[in-house]
Amino acid sequence: MKFEDLGLSPNLMKAIKDCGYDTPTPIQEQAIPYILMKRDVVGLAQTGTGKTAGFTLPMIEMLAGGRAKARMPRSLILSPTRELAAQIAESFDTYGKYSKLSKALLIGGSSMDDQIRILERGVDVLIATPGRLLDLFGRGNILLTDIRILVIDEADRMLDMGFIPDIEKICSLLPPLRQTMLFSATMPPEIRRLTTKFLSSPKEVAVAPPATTSSTVEIFLAYADPRRKKELLHEIMVHEKIRNAFIFCNRKRDVDLLATWLKKRGYDALALHGDMAQSHRTETLGKFKDGTLPILVCSDVAARGLDVVNVSHVFNYDVPNNPDDFVHRIGRTGRAGMTGRAWTIVTKEDEKLIQAIEKNIKIKIQVSDIGLGAHKQGETGDSEEKSGGRGDSASRSGHRPKARGRGAETRKEADPAIREEKRAESPKPPRESNHKHGSERHIPAKKAHQPPHRKPREDDDSSGSSGFGDDIPAFLRPKS
């Protein structure tokens, strides 16, 4: 099938030809006809299959014949991340350049005043993240009563990021008579419940089983000691012919640390994660897209939907905790029929996660020879530490083993020289004296409490007890 067979307008066909496309992808071929029929659609396809154009093209076609009112957009596209929302906006610019449709991009980290001014003029297409949309709606800057088309993109990622309550609230604010499209790479039960609640007799389009990897991506595992992960990553990068690469970490802190470590070793690498300012994130991603930045160290903020042309490698510096995230990460390479290679660095603690991933994708991942020596060495070191004697563990820790039982101490103290040395080192206890008229024991007053400049009284008895102050009562003084 060709794009001409889908019944698109001449202006839209011209924009498609300008991009060099003539044949739709399977998800586009199946979804676009149903969307043009104004049917609700559920699209299931792995990442990198052209889902964005699958709903962008028919939306431009259907919205071409109307005009939006102030603060009342005609269509709404919800995206989980700012980067994906910006990419959808770029797609509308690319395919809608010969149409007169207006759009607004509502994302956090950008000027809210500028976004409000665009909404005041009226927009045909509203592309937003859930948080910023609800914020502007709560301020009264936007009305959702004229929405005729709703698209929920990367619905499973919405679930992972905790946006499902926001999605449900937004759907409740929209007109009940609307066309709804939901696109997702996987279909967990929560997303299935969402489609049942908010979609009307949807047509389900699936071009690949959920949680499958692309056949154009070669996948490898490399085992390493946790302390040698950076060195192993460097070894793999030297071994591979890298044109450009994503390197994924689980924690934002590790993203910054790894990017700094790579730059110190001569790599042109930058970090990308959710704590960065939006302007910095956009600039960094732009450099990676245009080829001026070859290595991007990032968190899962870049794992969904971002379309970068001809990425040669993906490295999982950390094994993802969610098996589905593994599919989305390695889906950044091998897109649009190109080939790619994906490496995952694994420690002994990650083996259960790898088993879950292999069960999810139904593939036994190939283990590379790179890094196996370090892994075996780590296992040997662990076994020696577990089976070694007390003397070995003591020498490693720098402490001598303590003698067990009272017998050892008794044998030590039996030596007269040791007893004499201990007696000389031990401090002498404070001298105690018993008053000759009483049996109570009195502790001499501490020197720290006596004024240093004070002289003893002449009638003080140096051998007598103290504790009542300097003046001893008369009834306690000895009779002369």
Task: Please outline the helices and strands.
Layout: H1 10-18, H2 26-36, E1 41-44, H3 51-63, E2 75-78, H4 82-95, E3 103-106, H5 112-121, E4 125-128, H6 130-138, E5 149-152, H7 155-160, H8 164-173, E6 179-184, H9 189-198, E7 203-206, E8 217-223, H10 229-239, E9 245-248, H11 252-264, E10 269-272, H12 278-289, E11 295-298, E12 313-316, H13 323-330, E13 340-346, H14 351-361, E14 366-367, H15 372-387, H16 390-397, H17 406-413, H18 416-425, E15 433-434, E16 441-442
Parallel strand pairs: 1-6, 1-7, 2-4, 2-5, 3-4, 5-6, 8-13, 8-14, 9-11, 9-12, 10-11, 12-13
Antiparallel strand pairs: 15-16
Helix pairs in contact: 2-3, 3-4, 13-14
Protein model, in words:
By secondary structure, the protein is of the alpha/beta class. It folds into 2 domains: 204 residues, P-loop containing nucleotide triphosphate hydrolases (Rossmann fold), CATH 3.40.50; 167 residues, P-loop containing nucleotide triphosphate hydrolases (Rossmann fold). It is built from 18 helices and 16 strands. Helix 2 packs parallel to helix 3. About 15% of the residues have low confidence.
